[in-house]
Amino acid sequence: MALSEVYWDHHIPLPKLAPVQAKVTVALGALLCFINSYDGEFVFDDSEAIVNNKDLKPTTPLNNIWSNDFWGSNLSSNSSHKSYRPLTVLTFRLNYLLAGGLHPVGFHVLNIILHAVISALMIDVFAILIGGLAYDVKGRILNHAPKTSLLAALFFATHPVHTESVAGIVGRADLLCALFFQLSFLTYCKAFSRGSERDDRFSVQWVVVSLLLCAAAMLCKEQGITVLGVNAAFDVLLICNVNVYELSQRLLLRKIPLDVSEILRMGLLTRLALMGLGGLFMLYARWRIMGTGPPAFTEVDNPASFAENIFLRMVNYNYYYSLNAWLLLCPWWLCFDWSMGCVPLIKSATDWRMVWLLLLWCVLIGLISQALCSQDRQRRRTLTLGLVLLVVPFLPACNIFFRVGFVIAERVLYLSSAGYCLLLAYSVGHCCCRWSKYRKLLCVSVLALLCVFVARCALRSHQWRSEQSLFTSALSVCPFNAKVHYNVGKNLADRGNSTAAIAYYREAVRLHPTYVHAMNNLGNILKERNELIEAEQLLSKAVSIQPDFAAAWMNLGIVQNSLQKFEEAEQSYWNAIRFRKKYPDCYYNLGRLYADLNRHVDALNAWRNATVLKPDHSLAWNNMVILLDNTGNLGQAELIGREALKLLPNDHTIMFSLANVLGKLQKYKESEGFFLHALRINPNAASCHGNLAVLYHRWGKLELAKKHYELSLKLDPEAPGTRDNYNMLRRKLDQLKRPTP
């Protein structure tokens, strides 16, 4: 099973380190690359997978993570993404519990530590794939290629394409999947640790443990099942020492009879059967868990998969592969999203980009021919296993077996990059061995490459620290990507720069004329700026393109209400509710419409529906209290206000409204208590000081009334009615101070 010392290893321009020193060195390199992302924000997909994911909160039953997808939606829902990663979500939940809430530092630190651990473990993986499997008397892996495996692990630890997986918190799925992938492979190797006794002996228990770790990898990310392919290739090529080229010649030419007795004696078929059955069971379980079938992706997500011409579809898939290969070779142009025009489709065989496809396959065919036909056994095995580690983990993302929801995703290259790094380290060793007189130049080149990798990682992980820097960095990489412009605009709008946001939203719509989310957000901003006619046009177009876009229907209703198109507004609100049954904000806005139309009972019913769907909907509770107060239903207003404060005990707006009601009911002491409590929460509320002053005025506590009138006028000199009330109080106080004749 074990190979002799790898002949090119001593030519590698690195010192030979002890196993622990090598792993510490690699881990430190990984930390150096990504440490500056430790205090970053929640960015991009973190919002949905973490910030808005109820499965992270301690109040949510723990069992929910086993029935919901990665984003917190029920797997049985047609809108579910079907990404089933409960173990990853469980680590997010642990982060939440340990930090006492959504504090991103803990999330980022764990990601960085995981990458450092994975990078260090890669030394053992590379040592086996390059130098063969052998153990010392203590059961530790013997490394026959210490320098090559160290160099490959350093390349892996510092490769910039990993930035999305490490600096983006949702990349935790890739990290955990890679960790269990490694453990499954190393555990599978453990099954042969008694190789010094008899070659036909292996441990079924370790094979079963390897399958369980594969299942764990799959519960972190679907890509984890590909470790079975790597294990099988390792078994065939290293354990059973099968020469694939010779085997294929015998099968095709049939000149020499195929002797399978040796393979049968070594138990290969038994192990392959165990892995095959285990893999089929995992796939079956995964399919059953998905419930309603695979997720439904749109043409925007993956345009090549919707091409009617099969030839062009295959051409574009291969073009995507070449772009992924380029990201591994030259990871300088990195982008958080490669959809929506970032990679235009190849629509003709005369497109100049066809050159990249030809180049990719020329390189692959060259590598495969060397891997199969080389007379050098060590080179043959290293290249073959390097290609296996490069290609097999990428298979779930290749669009061959099923449609994926992206064009290019840097995160899916996390495991595949290990194969690339192995091949790159082998190339360095081969060059140093062949051109020994240029050894110093090669040494400088390797050092320079590692420095460039570290610098690029540091720069890219810094860009991932905030959405502003992440989104703007993509403008130079994918200037024709509508989604990039949309996200830049959204970030600007969130920071209050609506003028700049409008320009980016308009550009997103120009680049992608059916981009309904950009239309919706642009319509919202125009609504706030009182540009209602254009806002109505945009929102109407959005719902005509996507009739089930509930948020756009609601926003259209708000605009139509402002334009006093009350019937159209009511219909738009009901359309929104039809497409999204549980829509508390829409019920709230529908209630406002009914209140404007003096349909008070309908308004109260709408707001009550909002609070049933969302018990902490403060605005709906408050509006019910105010409406009942204004219509003279003070007793009912009091009941609603008290009910609301049981659910929202620190909501100062509801306290304020309830205090007003209690004042009118002449429950002065209770009213005073709620006013004072509201002021402790929000001491600068001029209206609260003013109404408390009115309460004291009625109550006869004139000095306290004077104090709060003055505080109210200090905070808001233009407060309506307050100055008149204050002047009235001063006249009364003056009268009281005059001596009686």
Automatic annotation (TrEMBL):
It is a multi-pass membrane protein. GO terms for cellular component: endoplasmic reticulum; membrane. The chain crosses the membrane at residues 112-135, 201-219, 268-287, 354-373, 385-406, 412-429, 441-459. Residues 293-365 form the DUF1736 domain. GO terms for biological process: endoplasmic reticulum unfolded protein response. The keyword Membrane applies. GO terms for molecular function: dolichyl-phosphate-mannose-protein mannosyltransferase activity. Pathway: Protein modification; protein glycosylation. Keywords: Endoplasmic reticulum, Membrane, Repeat, TPR repeat, Transferase, Transmembrane, Transmembrane helix. It is an enzyme of class 2 (transferase). It is found in: Endoplasmic reticulum; Membrane. SMART domains: TPR. Its EC number is 2.4.1.109. Its main location: endoplasmic reticulum. It comes from the Eukaryota. The keyword ATP-binding does not apply. Belongs to the TMTC family. This is dolichyl-phosphate-mannose--protein mannosyltransferase.
